[in-house]
Amino acid sequence: MGLTFLFTISGKVGSVYSQALFQKRLLVPVAVAAATSAFNKADLPFDVNYGPLFLGFLTYKAAVLTKLYQDLKPDIVAAIAGNPEGEEE
Q1: I need a labelling partner for 68 at 20 to 30 A (CA). Which of 6, 47, 54, 75 fits?
Q2: What is the pTM of this model?
Q3: How far apart are CA 9 and CA 6, in angstroms?
């Protein structure tokens, strides 16, 4: 019983990770890293550093998530309060 459960769980976890590898949102950081690497291999007088580039990407991601939360917060509060239409009482 325990071994069957372990195999079932491992199969589900493996399928989740394999689906995550093919999502569009993973394409952006991979493309940025590839472009940075190609730019650094070119014979140019300066190189692009990965650290600030990654920090800028994370800052952008945090700003988008914050804006999304601010836009959806009234709907979330209304749904928790039992008012799914967002109507004020």
Answers
A1: 54
A2: 0.46
A3: 5
Question: Per residue in 40-76, is it b (16+ CB within 10 Å) or e — as a string?
Answer: eeeeeeeeeeeeeeeeeeeeeeeeeeeeeeeeeeeee
For 16, list phi and psi in degrees, rounded to 5.
-65, -45
Token pair, residue 79, equals 């749904």
- Residue boundaries of the structural domains of the chain: 24-89
What are the Cα distances from residue 10, in Å, to 19, 21, 24? 14, 17, 24
Cα 48 to Cα 31: distance, rounded to the nearest angstrom: 14
